[in-house]
Amino acid sequence: MADDIPNTNDVESAEVVLPGGELTDTLAFFTDGLGFRVDSIYPADAPRVAVISGYGIRLRLDADFQGAPGALRLQRRTAEKSEPQVAPNGTSIEFASGDEPVEIPPLHASLIVRHMSDGPGWGEGRAGMQYRDLIPDRFGGRFIASHIRIPDGGPVADYVHHHHVHFQMIFCVRGWVRVVYEDQGQPMLMEPGDCFLQPPHIRHRVLESSDNMEVVEISCPAEHETCVDHLMELPTRVPGPDRDFGGQRFVFHQSGSALWSPWKHSGFEQQDTGIENATAGVVSAIVIRASGAVGSVTLRHDGDICFLFVLAGSASLNCSGANNYRIEKNTSAAIPSGQNAELTSASPDFKMLRVFVPSQRSGQSTR
Question: Is the domain of 121 the same as that of 84?
Answer without folding.
Answer: no
